[in-house]
Design brief:
alpha+beta; four-stranded antiparallel β-sheet; three-stranded antiparallel β-sheet; 6 helices; about 50% helix; elongated
Length: about 180
């Protein structure tokens, strides 16, 4: 896909000025502990069943341990953080970062996955679970302010509907939480 030449004239790689308050996923540590508990439960169950059957050996124990480690790696959550003009995701061995004030596309991927794919004018790409944004208003605020800047500058051309739908969903769920907390549900 090609872009107009005037888009590149407005794009710069410099970071936005101002204080950079970083927002993080507040549930990340809990999700890591849950992943470790699941892997530990699987390991314990496999060792218990294999021991009860009388077929537990050091080789089989090592195999069950590797299976539990593999489950932990599969369940290990992505850490999402955002600051002024950027959003980053970090997995075990890789980190990705996108400039939210230079977004050119926001779209859900094809298929069943509940993810948003963010692309910026510098060629960076990040996938984010919308549930993380819904549970962490600080992350959503940082993404929304950067996306608004991109939309205002005319850089964001694909995915404004997806962002507006997510914003409406966030507003709806926040209002429901306020009603529940105040006893008005």
């Amino acid at each position: 896909m090609e872009y107009r030449d005037d888009t590149y004239a407005r794009v710069s790689g410099a970071r936005p000025a101002g204080p950079d308050v970083v927002a993080h996923d507040r549930d990340w540590a809990h999700d890591v502990r849950t992943s470790a508990r699941c892997a530990g439960a699987l390991l314990g169950l496999l060792l218990l069943l294999d021991g009860a059957a009388g077929s537990l050996s050091p080789g089989r124990g090592a195999l069950w341990f590797l299976l539990a480690v593999l489950l932990f790696l599969v369940l290990f959550p992505v850490r999402v953080s955002a600051g002024t003009g950027w959003l980053a995701t970090r997995r075990l061995w890789a980190a990705r970062r996108v400039r939210t004030d230079l977004l050119v596309a926001v779209r859900p991927p094809a298929g069943v996955a509940q993810r948003l794919v963010l692309r910026d004018a510098l060629g960076n790409r990040v996938e984010v679970d919308p549930g993380v944004l819904l549970r962490n208003p600080g992350l959503w605020y940082r993404l929304a302010e950067g996306a608004r800047a991109s939309e205002t500058a005319g850089i964001l051309r694909v995915g404004t509907t997806a962002l507006h739908d997510l914003s409406a969903r966030l507003d709806r769920e926040t209002a429901l939480e306020v009603f529940r907390a105040s006893g008005l549900d």
